[in-house]
Amino acid sequence: MTAKTTSEGILRAIGILASIVLLLIFLYKIQSVLAYLAIAAVVSLIGRPIVLFLRRKLKFNNTLAVIVTMILLIGIVTGIIALFIPLLVSQGQNLSLLNMEALQANVENLYVQVTDYFDLSSSEIEQEIKYSKIFANLDFGFIPNFLNSFVAVLGSLSVGLFSVLFIAFFFLKDSKLFEEGLLVFVPDNKESRLKKSIDTIKDLLSRYFVGLVLQILILFIIYSIVLFALGIENAIVIAFLCALLNLIPYVGPVIGGVLMLILTMTSNLGADFSSVILPKTIYVMIGFIIGQLVDNFFSQPYIFSNSVKSHPLEIFLVIIIGGLLFGITGMIIAVPGYTAIKVILKEFLAENKIVKSLTKNL
Predict the structure, then answer these.
(1) Tell me, what's the pLDDT at 3?
(2) Residue 104, burial from CB neighbour count under 10 angstroms (0-12, 13-18, 19+)
(3) 76, pLDDT greater than 70
């Protein structure tokens, strides 16, 4: 090996590393655009069955079907915002008018009632914590400030929402746009396989994301009925947040349960713990458990068996690995990402024994 060959190899390696670094920097700078594209892709997959229904059953042309679908999706989003935002605003205004010293005293009183009810006051340590005014060091004024800031952030998201809807419209209208872009990087003799893979991925992921929407809707209805029946304030907001958290596999339901528990207990500050707060909290948590049982034994098996067509253990391991590699985001995208990889492997490596075993249900 000559010195010239060595130097050329080093320069080539440096050039590749520099290109990778520049690409990563570029992707980091446009991360918001990538997020818009990803969300728009999900929206288009959710809207795809509607477009196909309008085209095949009602004989709409493609453009009209896409317009009707987008109007329907925008109407749903607008309805959620119209329902959700005013409740947040009013809650923020109510909290901003609260006497924070009274709120602080009520929370401390709730803590005292809990420790007394469960007979925790016998411990000297519990006595010290209970009467040391530990809550006096907490600044409850952050609550209205946080909610008001959150509402202000929602206003800035309007640009992102418009961008997502605009991109989703063209993903639905020109469904071959993304596909044609990928075909540029594929040899001619592989194009038919890639087209077949993309069509299969679209069908599977459309069913998957529509199933997730149905899953959230079922949980939202169950939680809303329970919270309304028990007279919990802002029942719709709490039900929506807890149902939405269920999108995070395994971790989301735990967070949702804790959130519902806390919001239920603090919605009756000043009331008697043993006769009001505790019974109401128990009934709410029973309703939450019922919702989770329906989700675990009906919604999730239906979604996985009819969309991604993977074994529950397989899904569990994929989600855990996604979480270890990329955190919460990895857990959310693990199933659709794994499904897309399986479809591509089946199309291009169909004779491989491992691929055959993993994709036998596709």
Answers:
(1) 67
(2) middle
(3) yes
